[in-house]
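Continuing the batch. This is chain 6 of the set; chains 1 through 5 are on the previous pages. Same settings as before, nothing changed between runs. Recording input and output for traceability.
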Amino acid sequence: MSVGRDSITEDELAERAGANVETIRRLVGLGILSLEDGAFRRRDVMRVRVVRDLEAKGIDPETLAAALGSGHLTLGYLESAGRRFPRSDVTFERLAVDAGIAVETIQRIYVAFGLPRPEPDERVREEDLPMLKAIPVLFGAGVDEGEVLRAVRVWGDGARRVAQFQEHYFHNTVEERFRRRGLRDNEAFEAAIRDVGLRMGHSGEQMLGWLLRRHAEVFLTEHQFEHVEAALDEAGVRVRTPRGDEAAAFADLTGYTRLTEESGDERAAAVSLELAQFVNEVAAAHRGDVVKMLGDGVHFHFRDPADAVRASLDIVGGVQPRGLPPAHIGVNAGPMIYDEGDYFGRTVNIAARIAAKANAGDVFVGEDLARNVEPDGFALHEVGEFELKGIARPVTIFRAVGT
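Output for chain 6:
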């Protein structure tokens, strides 16, 4: 049979989709596939793959056909997911030999990335090869496996969270606009893909790359400056500025749990979003960083402990004008450990415990900060000694007030 450029035969469809001819004929009989001018279309390859994937998950073709026939289900959005990235001719076992590392190490790297663990005889995706070729460079520089796995865990967790949120946002924010127009769930999804998803293209991937470059620029510049300072110090032409204590701060909203109970989860989610926007603005204005959001709270890091206090005062004074519940904050200064995007240590623990002692509108400060910081724009008043959970001796706490 002669077919056009976009047409394929029954045998070709079965081969490309990884199915057999009997499966193809079964899907035709159910109305899931249809012939056009005696041939199938190339897009049918994706449809067959989708049907087979769904069948493997326990959804049989007969059930799919019934939902398709009633108009409640379309497969357009699933067919794009049926596309497969091309595989190279290189197996993971071969890649490991060429790279001079154990195939078990590559498997551990995939797991650390949050990806499925590959089998040794599995062929590597073409898109994976350039990424994997960078890993032996680290080993060649003397970086051990544990440190490599630590790095890829951070990359993998960051990308996974962005990818997960992207789908959540699309479903709950973008598709919802179409569902409100009276479209069925599947219709709304396809309309959202057509009118928004396709028009935006690969903006998510591009934005992630752009943001990584912008953030990396800031940290790289700081890193370079530290090396310049070290060189000038070693040359005896400029004494390196000693790095003083840094600060950890924890802010919590008072009455957030009650708000959730009284106003519902949607209101609580709106409060969390507004809080995140507000605290990022305040942290940026005071040369600080939001380490992580904690639902109804925030963990901050500041290079300058005085900045931490001033930022905290701005937060407790600014939450209610923003329509947020009152806030209370604990701040402490001292050495801390940075690892995998977070800060740890006694300084951080005490800051969190101090926050738990504060009441609405309070900015409580630990004795380590009060002892080593010259107040500027604020004053510190002693509140008293407190027993803090997990801390061996009582800690003197001070209340910060603006001046």
